């Protein structure tokens, strides 16, 4: 999955990214609009980006890297394939071996610092930030984020499988959302974050890939 996303959603793309750390104690200088362009990175983890101060990202924390995709597994079924009424009345037999699932939350992170007008840096240094000198990048940040998420959604819906795996997309359980907590969208500017919640069906074995019979089978055969 990670390789698939790196090849299809990261390679050849460039988004805004904060420049390396400057100043003392590992914090950014006063001009947070100073950015560079970088190719997105992809991680396997469960950890959202964490600004250490408003508008300041600590690049020593690998999960505060932007732009990035973080693939996070959630609770999934080991073996679950209930009969559906439609199947019964339509005489459809689904393969019981496809009873395992893999549920993922895929976090997309974009960095959009917006515009700081002349005099803002000086007001920050004085300890009295003049908020009238800030124009947040809300619209371009949101647009960049959702366009990238749209590309990911279209990729999964088109391909439906992940190369070199037995994963098959369950598009009935495909959710699309901005980063939220308890139904409220979280404001993490200059980070803009959104989720794709996806579920895949995959092969469910019987726990005997190493050739070992179950204890129940051994009892029935009089072995145990």
SSE blueprint and pairings:
Elements (H helix, E strand, L loop, with lengths): L1 H9 L4 E4 L16 E4 L2 E4 L23 E6 L11 H5 L10 E12 L3 E2 L3 H6 L8 E2 L2 H22 L8 E2 L5 E4 L1 E2 L2 E2 L5 E12 L12 H6 L4
Parallel strand pairs: 3-4
Antiparallel strand pairs: 1-2, 4-5, 5-12, 6-7, 8-12, 9-12, 10-11
Description:
- The strands form four sheets. Strands 3, 4, 5, 8, 9 and 12 form a six-stranded mixed sheet that branches. The protein has a two-stranded antiparallel sheet with strand order 1-2. A two-stranded antiparallel sheet has the order 6-7.
- The protein has helices at 2-10, 85-89, 120-125, 138-159, 215-220, and strands spanning 15-18, 35-38, 41-44, 68-73, 100-111, 115-116, 134-135, 168-169, 175-178, 180-181, 184-185, 191-202.
- The chain has 224 residues and is α+β, with helices and mostly antiparallel strands.
- It has one domain (2-220).
Q: What is the number of strand segments?
A: 12
User: How many angstroms separate the termini?
Assistant: 41 Å
Query: Measured on Cα atoms, how large is the radius of gyration?
Result: 23 Å
Content-based structural category: alpha+beta
Share of helix, binned: 10-25%
- In sequence order, what are the helices and strands, one letter per element? HEEEEHEEHEHEEEEEH
> Which percent range describes the beta-strand content?
25-35%
- Sheet of most strands: 6 strands, mixed
Please tally the helical runs, counting DSSP H or I stretches of 4 or more residues: 5
Low-confidence spans: 24-30
> What does the average pLDDT come to?
77
Number of domains: 1
Shape: elongated
């Amino acid at each position: 999955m990670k390789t698939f996303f790196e090849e299809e959603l990261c390679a050849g793309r460039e988004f805004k990214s904060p420049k390396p750390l400057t100043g003392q104690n590992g914090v950014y200088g006063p001009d947070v609009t100073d950015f560079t362009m970088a190719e997105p990175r992809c991680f396997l983890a469960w950890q959202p980006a964490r600004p250490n101060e408003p508008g300041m990202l600590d690049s020593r924390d690998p999960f505060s890297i932007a732009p990035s995709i973080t693939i996070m597994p959630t609770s999934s079924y080991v073996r679950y394939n209930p009969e559906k009424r439609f199947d019964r009345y339509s005489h459809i037999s689904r393969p019981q071996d496809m009873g395992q699932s893999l549920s993922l939350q895929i976090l997309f992170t974009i960095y959009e610092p917006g515009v700081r007008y002349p005099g803002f840096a000086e007001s920050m240094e004085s300890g009295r930030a003049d908020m009238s000198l800030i124009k947040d990048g809300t619209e371009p940040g949101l647009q960049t984020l959702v366009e990238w998420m749209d590309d990911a959604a279209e990729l999964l819906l088109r391909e439906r499988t992940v190369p070199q795996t037995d994963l098959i997309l369950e598009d009935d359980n495909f959710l699309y959302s901005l980063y939220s907590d308890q139904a409220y969208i979280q404001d993490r500017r200059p980070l803009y974050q959104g989720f794709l919640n996806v579920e895949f069906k995959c092969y469910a074995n019987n726990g005997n890939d190493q050739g070992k019979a179950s204890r129940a089978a051994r009892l029935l055969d009089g072995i145990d």
